[in-house]
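Give me structure tokens for this 129-residue protein.
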Amino acid sequence: MRNPADVAFMECAERERMRGYGHQVSDVIVSLEPRPSNVRNVRDIVREVAQSGGGQIVSGESGFTTIAGREAVVYTVQTVYPERHRYARLIHPNGRYIVNISTGDYGERIDPIDLQVMNLIMSSMAIEF
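Here you go.
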């Protein structure tokens, strides 16, 4: 799902043949990834992220919640690049996958519209299997 302002910008940039315009937009991404064998619950997800070295979990911007009736963890990571990403992750009911909802941007802030879209996805998500 894309921010409507980003869609309008990309359409204009494509029409005007601007180079590199795709780097100026951010997305909210929903994906599945295989659940590592050492991840038994969402607390293990947080532990794995903290130990990975892929960025620092931002203090005060993490916690536990419920998404689609499942326990989930939500956290923000800041990298040295600098990039900032917001993640919501939960274990799929079948136990084989981690559901990952994320958004991010260059710099030290994430566009508030992208965060609103992410929150909308989190609050309305249903998982059927």
